[in-house]
Every structure is written in C-alpha cells, then in structure tokens.
C-alpha cells in the first residue's frame, strides 16, 4: 500500500475492499429457506470468468482464473488471479466463505500484500435471504518496508432472487447479494474513513454474472458483466479440495478405501470407509447430493431395490440414510448431474425394459417435488453415454449414443424439461469408438 498521502492510502484500500467481491460465486441455493454457500462458490483449478468492465467513462475486459492453492494467513487458500497477475485469496469450508487478503501487482512501487485478520466472512456455511453476515478486524497492507493497518467492519446480505441479462446470457434465479466494508484509522497522521459496497448477482453453477461496485470516497461506480466462463467441477472430490479422489471397493471382502489425490500424490487423509460386506450393495453413483462441495456415495441394493446415500467428508460419513426404494431392477441409475442448477447433484434413472427415464432432483436425502419423467426412449440401442453441462448454463445435460447406428444426440436439460436446442451431433460409427469422458 502506497503511503505517500491519505488519498493514495484510500485508493489502495479501496482496491483491498474488492478482495471481498472478486469471484463472489453463487453463494446461495434458491430452493430452500437456508442457503448452502459451499457449492455456489465454484473454485476448481483452471476455472475462468471473463467480464466486460465499465466505469461509465472507460471500458475494458477482465479475466479471473482459479490458479491453485497456497498457504496464506494461517490457512490453505484458493488463488483467484487476474490477467495482471494480481491475486485474491479465499477459503470455502465449514466456517463458510471467507476472504483472507490479496496480492496487488505494482511494477512501479513494488508488489503489495494485504491481509484481513480475521478473514472477512463473506457468507456463512448456510445463509437465509435477508439475513446479514457480519465481521470486524484489521486490514493490514505491506509494500516493501512500509506497513500500515486499518480497522474494518463488514456486512454481507443476500437481498432477493432476480433475473439478470448479461452478454453471457439471461440467468434466472440469480441471488442479489450486497457486501459493504467500512474502513477507519490513521495513516501517516492522516485520518482514513471510507466504505465500499458491491452488489453482486450470483447464479448456481456459474458464479458472479454481474457486479456493481460503488466507492464512497471517489463516488465512482464500476460494473462487471459476465461475457464468458469455463467451470468444470472435479469428479469424486470427497475432501472438497478441488481435486478428484479415488474410491476403491473390494468385491470379495466388501471393504472400501479412499485415496485423496493431489496429482500423483496420495494425501495423508487416505483411509478406509465403512465396510459393506453384502455384495448386493453396489456403488450406483458419485455426486454432491447435499451441496456441501464434497462428493457423496449413492448405494443401490440389486436384490431389494433399496437406495442409500453416504454424505462424505473425506473418509468420514458425516450423515447417511435411505432414499426411496426402487424395487424393479429394470430401473438403473443412468447418470448423476445437477439438472436443475441448484448446486446439488440429481439422479437420472433409466428403465432397461420400457425405455422410461426419470429424474430425482435431490436435496440431501429429500427428492424434491420437481421430480418427474423425461421423454421415453424405447429403443434400447440408445444408451446414456454421458452427463455434462454442454451448453454452459450451469445445468447438466444428457448425451445419448445409439450403439447400433452410431448416432449421437444431446438433451440440453432444465430440470426434467428438454430445452428446444436439443439435436444430433456428428455420427460416429459403432464398434471401436466409445464415449469415455463421462
């Protein structure tokens, strides 16, 4: 932080305030009174967001990228880096979403590191529309040999659910969140007292689609509008660290074992998950059914038709329970994905005899009232080849492949509805070619 005068101090601290706003990604579900923040703050490595930026006078673009993890402020934080190299640091865990600080690139005066102690609470683990999350502490800036500290107070409130149109498209169920940070103190004998407010519109599975920042010191307003994004949630991330893990099952003994992964490294949290000795119980799918940002295990009993979920936290089963029994073994789990875009994975069933298809929209152990049939595909040559968000709307879609003709067809989904943009992909002759990236 430059300390030559109060104006520069305030300018740098206004930038510091934006730490609390960067990548405010989908903090709240719109389907219940309580909003789980974790799944709506997508921070998988490599995710990118590009915005059109305008302050009413000048226009530019800004790209933000999730650039891995580092140790900062006593925690392992996620790095959000823009195209200038500046970084912002977040954690998203059982304490909620918190802002730890930032690194600002300054080629003239030297890079500056800012730290919030304690971290700014951006959202509790579970929040409610109209319920404020508050915090207070110190904001410290270090640039070269210069250090100074201000006091801060913060308040973040989800205000309403709205529809927002930006260059990237029209997004319904956007949660309008307002965050205000007030700063006060003395720097080089100059009193500093100002606030910064950001209104953010957040969409499940996408992140921040629109931001409006108001600076009380300069009376300027800057707007960010999403133009494009690329987010891929890791598959089978049982620990919630942004890396896919490996679940092993011994088909003879019924033992289950988890490798928490970081590249080729098996992390220290490896270990056994409860043994399930009955071979009739099989792992039918892996998905984040409760929206805590950690993968869970869906079991199906191939004899009784019972279905059971382990809600996981690493190797720990934090809660568990039965969901509706499906006794007819013609029904099988055909895929797992977030079809309604609420940040919680859902279950796609397919009947191997009738060709019927059905979606369970999940909320923990509850099957939501929006469950229902998807169009019947009676020809059993058509198989569900994959589940993924192919149109980038934050909702999982269904890829079909005909094993006889080699035709491929896409259902772009919105809950149980197939959107009008459905259609064929290029035909790939059957035989040696198969979809493997499911």
Give short descriptive properties of this protein:
438 residues; mainly beta; YmcC-like fold; Neuraminidase; twelve-stranded antiparallel barrel; four-stranded antiparallel sheet
Structure write-up:
The protein has 438 residues and is mainly beta. The chain has two domains: 197 residues, Beta Barrel (YmcC-like fold), CATH 2.40.360; 182 residues, TolB, C-terminal domain (Neuraminidase, 6 Propeller), CATH 2.120.10. 3% of the residues lie in helices and 54% in strands. The protein has one helix and 35 strands. A twelve-stranded antiparallel barrel has the order 2-3-4-5-6-7-9-10-11-12-13-14. A four-stranded antiparallel sheet has the order 20-21-22-23, with no helix packed on it. It has a four-stranded antiparallel sheet with strand order 24-25-26-29, with no helix packed on it. The N terminus is likely disordered.
């Amino acid at each position: 932080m430059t300390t030559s005068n109060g104006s520069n101090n305030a300018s740098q601290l206004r930038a510091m305030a934006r730490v609390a706003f960067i990548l405010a990604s989908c903090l709240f579900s719109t389907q219940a009174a309580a909003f789980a923040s974790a799944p709506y703050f997508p921070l998988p490595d490599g995710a990118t967001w590009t915005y059109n930026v305008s302050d009413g006078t000048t226009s530019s673009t800004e790209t933000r990228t999730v650039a891995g993890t580092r140790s900062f402020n006593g925690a392992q934080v996620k790095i959000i880096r823009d195209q200038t190299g500046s970084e912002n640091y977040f954690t998203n865990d059982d304490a909620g979403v918190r802002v730890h600080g930032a690194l600002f690139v300054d080629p003239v005066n030297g890079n500056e590191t800012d730290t919030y102690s304690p971290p700014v609470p951006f959202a509790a683990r579970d929040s409610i529309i109209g319920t404020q999350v508050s915090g207070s502490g110190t904001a410290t800036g270090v640039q070269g040999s210069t250090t100074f500290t201000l006091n801060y107070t913060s308040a973040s409130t989800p205000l309403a659910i709205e529809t927002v149109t930006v260059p990237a498209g029209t997004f319904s169920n956007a949660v309008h969140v307002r965050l205000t940070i007030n700063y006060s103190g003395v720097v080089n004998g100059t009193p500093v007292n100002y606030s910064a407010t950001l209104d953010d519109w957040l969409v499940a599975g996408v992140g921040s689609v629109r931001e409006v920042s108001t600076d009380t010191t300069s009376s300027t307003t800057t707007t960010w509008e999403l133009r494009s994004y690329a987010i891929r949630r890791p598959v089978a991330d049982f620990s919630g660290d942004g890396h896919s893990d490996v679940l092993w099952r011994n088909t003879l003994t019924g033992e289950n074992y988890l490798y928490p992964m970081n590249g080729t490294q098996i992390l220290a949290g490896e270990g056994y998950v409860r043994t399930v000795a009955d071979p009739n119980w099989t792992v039918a799918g892996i998905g984040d059914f409760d929206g805590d940002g950690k993968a869970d295990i869906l079991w199906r009993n191939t004899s009784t038709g019972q279905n059971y979920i382990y809600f996981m936290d690493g190797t720990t089963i934090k809660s568990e329970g039965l969901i509706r029994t499906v006794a007819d073994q013609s029904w099988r789990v055909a895929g797992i994905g977030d079809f309604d875009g609420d940040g919680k994975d859902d279950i796609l069933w397919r009947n191997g005899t009738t060709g019927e298809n059905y979606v369970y929209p999940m909320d923990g152990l509850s099957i939501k009232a929006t469950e229902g049939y998807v169009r019947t595909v009676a020809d059993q040559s058509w198989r569900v080849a994959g589940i993924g968000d192919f149109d980038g709307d934050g909702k999982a879609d269904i890829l079909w492949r005909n094993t006889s003709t080699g035709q491929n067809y896409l259902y772009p989904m919105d809950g149980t509805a197939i959107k009008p943009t459905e259609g064929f992909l290029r035909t790939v002759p059957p035989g040696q070619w198969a979809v493997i990236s499911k």
